[in-house]
Specification:
The complex is a heterodimer of chains A (259) and B (223). With 259 residues, chain A is mostly helical. Chain A contains 10 helices and no strands. Chain A has one domain. The longest helix of chain A has 29 residues. Chain B is 38% helix and 26% strand. Chain B has 2 domains: 111 residues, Rossmann fold (3-Layer(aba) Sandwich); 60 residues. In chain B, β7 and β8 form a beta hairpin. In chain B, α2 crosses α3, α3 crosses α4 and α4 packs parallel to α5. The chains are: A mainly alpha (259), B alpha/beta (223).
Amino acid sequence: MQRRHYLDIFYVVQKALFLRELNMRFSSSRLGLFWTFFEPFFQVLLFILLKIFLFGDRASNFEYAVFLALNFTAFNMFRNIVTKSIGSFSANRGLFIYKQVKPIDTIIARVLVEIFITSIIILMFLFIGYYFEYDMNVGNFNLVAFGFLFLIVFSFSLSLCLSVANTFINSVKTIVKFLMNALMFGSAIFYSLDMLSEEVQAILLYNPLTHFIVFIHSAYFQVIDSSPVDYTYMILWTTSLLFAGLWYYIKLEKRIISL
Amino acid sequence: MIILKNVTKYFQTKEGKNYILKDVSMTLPENTNIGILGRNGAGKSTLVRMLGQIEFPNKGRILSNKSFSWPLGLSGGFVGKMTGRSNVKFVCRLYGKNDQEINDIINEIRDFSELGNYFEMPIKTYSSGMKARLNFGLSMAFDFDYLLIDETLSVGDSRFKKKSKEALMKKIETCSILLVSHNMKTLKELCDAGIVVNNGEISYYEDINDAISEYENINKKKK
């Protein structure tokens, strides 16, 4: 068998794992598949109804449905990347008998699958938006795209840390799933920061995810104030998580493989 | 050629370090089928897993410019939810086969493993014998310099056993095997040389019969 370059191996392994993850996701449970694609719509619908119920049909200076769709897409992507990849080492343990499959490959494959699913959801939202003639003008498209990319890197870094931790400490997964629910309420997803008092804003801005969400929706809707976004804070979180994750991963890779 | 350079491997237990290999240096020649012998727990499987690079020495290095198969054990890397076909496809993709090659390999394995309709059904519906047959067929489909086999030759019924032995004999013409087995007859049939793993040391014998008699000596002493 001829020797292959490590980038070729990486590509081949990613392709195989990606298709396998998709196959598993689409063939395992119909209900799960349905929920994957319709959860964002239910979320958006629920919060629109909630807003009408609580505040009446008061007009705001941006399209609230589009605002919700954008934020939930970003948040769901973050949540799914983290919660799906956290168990990827244990779920793919059987594959480590093939030496070209490294544990980190299984995380990357799951991240790619989530990006793929998110893209489909974005297309579905766009289709519905055009059909119902929502105002979907993007303020700064490049900045929105950059925000998503940045969020992907952040999510991956966090996943890597948590996956390594989850291998050696029990209960990490349970805690993370619980925290995700809290994060949904504390990340400026169904409200914009300027609706809140300064004290509450200051607390929420300790949460790095708030910065990412505000970054994305203030780039989309130019009317939303982008000044709360602290780039240094976002970069600091991302790089620290990425370096910590990689450092622990490299130290423990062999132990994860032969566990 | 496989070179072991000051290889130390131990498992940490409550009573201290349990050594499998203790500072072992040795060179194994090319184009030789090698049988690996040792008592249960001596570290045969660990040695095979280290050669397959899914277990790593605590100290020292194992060097080789040859390609090794994954250790063919009883439990393959199959996903229960996926069909036999998609599992085979996955492994083919891992080894960088293109669509044409994948098709050929799938047909070959489907015929060899004699699973019939089960080939299109999820692995979780398989019996252990069927799983082993698929696993064996899969391992025969790729070309490696070394096949690492960990006691899997006794799969299926007697007819399939005969068939798989024939397939393996044919395979050996183009590649070498490193075989872990407790079956002396199989070892004598398939291997030229032997390794005995015992008490953190391994010794190499150019003739498999010498290795077998040494192994039997060890067994007598332990009794």
